[in-house]
């Protein structure tokens, strides 16, 4: 899509999923779809029309393309014929939302400048912007090396200028198009939108005045109030002024309403308030807020039975018989939350031919044995070779009228009958906020009976769109090193898949803390990248190592203090042999195991006990609250060129399938990005 105006009809290309994927995705599993759209949001709508500029390829996408029994909560799964969506960078073309406007750069200059500087630096073009170097003319009879060097320097200046031209709106482009160099363009935009030190000082003063005037309203939640304060503070920090979290903590403590006095008193008795972190304070206040809400609105807590009666269910089954079956322990799709169709959606098992389980869970696998009798064909629970307690057959009934759900916590609101029931523990989930739904069918009517016998009407059924923060690799790397790993200066750190989006940042963070860092990668080019550009102390190509244990002993003769695990299998087994006593392992992925029919056996698990190791799994989803800390920590290092972020960029939406598939064969260097449009 080239240059277009609002209201134009244009072609819109999307990468679509052909069918559910088994194993690693292939290019044949994806296709490009072209449709026509109008570049305009509906009148009286708060919708936003954006144009994708860059799209991110992430390993987690392969799981979202599958039709597995196990689904990760909080993710939107793709279905055949649906577009592949993910994180990215987009430009607003039209907006009915008051917080967004088309082509508005001025208010976001500091964010734009930080991202642009990082992008130019990763593209090895920042030198052309920062320094106005002169390209000397070629001498008579130049050598091939001189010709090549002259061409590279000239291209760098031209590319940097082109990237800056393409990163601004048309209105701003008309003001900078006559400038001759990338440095002139950068300096002009900096002067225009950031101003001189005096103007920046006035902006900081206004922001601090706004911060000091804030008081929490009775109608506000702690999250809303803390987010508002952080938004102001982050703008101050972007202008180059330091602003500590301690000051935010003090502000919250003296400006929250009287209803939080009991929590503050409790914190005074149990903690030193001068050392309490912002996240600790917010969590404590949110906990009291939640308890108060539950008391005021008629809370029902515990493992409560909820009965969902769907109008579209089957008729004729006796309800008392259903409850009796449940009390006897029988399993049906009303207890598990799965319909009969959902239980038979697997392809025929290659071992037994049945469709009610995936092949890797089949009892008839060649290498599967009962733990009690060592015979194939059954599990220990149903072993007949020893005296076993009688177990009733668990039957999946086909014709059911009702569905039963277990809820860890149910909140029933008496004050406002328009609110929906919130259930955080069921296969079927209920939400009180209609705006959370991406798709909602209001024609489906049903009732939910909770544990106290109270009935609640269900007004519709649909798909919920969950808002998440961007920057998944950054959050994962930051959490792994600073929160989960808790690294100390001088420790020995090993990072597998170190040239990937997470590994490259994690290694640099560990180096900033004064650690000895070694990474593994899958090619010599990636090894060179780790050592020469990303600053790792050493690195090795695991594909060239016949003995991973010997390789690790070569790089860690005294052992490993901390290991960031992203590979699994043989690599993890070798690491266990080389961990120090009381070492730590943080696991955020095991890419070598994702698509194996039978997971690899680990032989060295006993070292976990002998060495008293600490092993913790984590994902970015548990650490979104760290995003402000990530920016505060990393942005100064990026500005000082102490942290480098490598991106592997392919151009054109048509290259999207190839780029995504390339993740799983190790073709990418760093973060895989699809450049959709250079505008």
UniProtKB/TrEMBL annotation:
InterPro entries: ADH-like_C (IPR013149), ADH_N_2 (IPR041694), ER (IPR020843), GroES-like_sf (IPR011032), MDR_fam (IPR045010), NAD(P)-bd_dom_sf (IPR036291), PolX-like_BBD (IPR054722), Znf_CCHC (IPR001878). Coiled coil: none annotated. The keyword Zinc applies. Residues 319-336 have a biased composition (Polar residues). One of its GO terms (molecular function) is zinc ion binding. It holds the Pfam family Retrotran_gag_2. Gene3D superfamilies: Medium-chain alcohol dehydrogenases, catalytic domain (3.90.180.10), NAD(P)-binding Rossmann-like Domain (3.40.50.720), Zinc finger, CCHC-type (4.10.60.10). The keyword Zinc-finger applies. Residues 369-385 form the CCHC-type domain. Residues 311-346 are annotated as: Disordered. Keywords: Metal-binding, Oxidoreductase, Zinc, Zinc-finger. It comes from the Eukaryota. This is CCHC-type domain-containing protein. It comes from Trifolium subterraneum (Subterranean clover).
């Amino acid at each position: 899509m080239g240059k277009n105006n609002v209201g134009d009809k244009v072609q819109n290309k999307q990468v679509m999923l052909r069918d559910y994927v088994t194993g690693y995705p292939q290019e044949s599993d994806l296709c490009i779809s072209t449709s026509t759209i109008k570049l305009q949001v509906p009148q009286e709508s708060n919708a936003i029309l954006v144009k994708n500029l860059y799209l991110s390829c992430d390993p987690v996408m392969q799981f979202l393309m599958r039709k597995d029994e196990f689904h990760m909560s909080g993710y939107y799964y793709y279905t055949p014929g649906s577009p592949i969506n993910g994180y990215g960078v987009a430009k607003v073309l039209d907006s009915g939302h008051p917080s967004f406007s088309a082509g508005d750069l001025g208010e976001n200059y500091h964010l734009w400048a930080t991202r642009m500087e990082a992008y130019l630096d990763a593209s090895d073009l920042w030198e052309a912007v920062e320094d106005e170097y002169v390209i000397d003319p070629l001498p008579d009879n130049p050598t091939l090396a001189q010709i090549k060097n002259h061409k590279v320097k000239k291209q760098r200046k031209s590319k940097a200028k082109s990237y800056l031209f393409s990163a601004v709106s048309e209105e701003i482009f008309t003001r900078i198009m006559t400038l001759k160099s990338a440095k002139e363009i950068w300096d002009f935009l900096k002067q225009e939108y950031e101003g001189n030190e005096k103007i920046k000082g006035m902006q900081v003063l206004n922001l601090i005045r706004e911060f000091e005037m804030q008081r929490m309203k009775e109608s506000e939640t702690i999250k809303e109030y803390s987010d508002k304060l952080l938004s102001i503070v982050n703008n101050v920090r972007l202008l180059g002024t330091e602003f500590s979290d301690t000051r935010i903590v003090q502000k919250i403590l003296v400006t929250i309403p009287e209803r939080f006095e009991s929590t503050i008193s409790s914190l005074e008795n149990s903690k030193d308030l001068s050392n309490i972190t912002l996240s600790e304070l917010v969590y404590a206040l949110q906990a009291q807020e939640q308890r108060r809400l539950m008391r005021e609105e008629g809370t029902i807590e515990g493992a409560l039975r909820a009965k969902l009666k769907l109008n579209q269910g089957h008729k004729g089954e006796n309800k008392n018989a259903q409850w009796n079956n449940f009390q006897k322990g029988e399993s049906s799709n009303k207890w598990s939350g799965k319909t009969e169709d959902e239980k038979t959606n697997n392809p025929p098992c290659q071992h037994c031919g049945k469709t009610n389980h995936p092949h890797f869970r089949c009892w008839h696998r060649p290498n599967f044995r009962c733990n009690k009798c060592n015979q194939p064909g059954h599990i220990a629970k149903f072993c007949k070779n020893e005296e076993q307690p009688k177990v009733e057959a668990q039957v999946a009934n086909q014709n059911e009228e009702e569905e039963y759900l277990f809820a860890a916590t149910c909140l029933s609101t008496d004050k406002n009958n328009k609110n929906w029931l919130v259930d955080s523990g069921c296969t079927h989930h209920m939400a009180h906020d209609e705006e959370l739904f991406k798709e909602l069918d209001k024609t489906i009517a049903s009732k939910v009976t909770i544990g106290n016998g109270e009935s609640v009407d269900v007004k519709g059924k649909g798909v919920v769109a969950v808002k998440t923060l961007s920057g998944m690799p950054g959050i994962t790397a930051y959490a792994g090193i600073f929160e989960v790993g808790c690294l100390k200066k001088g420790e020995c750190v090993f990072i597998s898949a170190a040239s990937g989006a997470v590994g490259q940042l994690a290694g640099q963070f560990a180096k900033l803390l004064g650690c000895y860092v070694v990474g593994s990668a899958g090619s010599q080019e990636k090894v060179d990248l780790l050592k020469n550009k990303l600053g790792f102390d050493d690195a090795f190509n695991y594909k060239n190592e016949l003995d991973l244990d010997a390789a690790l002993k070569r790089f860690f003769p005294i052992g490993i203090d901390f290991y960031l695990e992203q590979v699994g299998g043989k690599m993890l087994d070798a690491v266990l042999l080389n961990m120090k006593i009381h070492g730590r392992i943080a696991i955020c992925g095991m890419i070598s195991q994702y698509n194996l029919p039978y997971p690899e056996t680990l032989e060295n698990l006993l070292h976990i006990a002998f060495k008293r190791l600490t092993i913790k799994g984590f994902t970015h989803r548990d650490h979104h609250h760290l995003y402000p800390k990530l920016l505060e920590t990393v942005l100064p290092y990026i500005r000082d060129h102490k942290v480098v972020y490598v991106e592997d960029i392919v151009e054109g939406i048509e290259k999207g399938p190839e780029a995504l598939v390339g993740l799983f064969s190790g073709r990418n260097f760093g973060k895989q990005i699809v450049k959709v449009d250079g505008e």
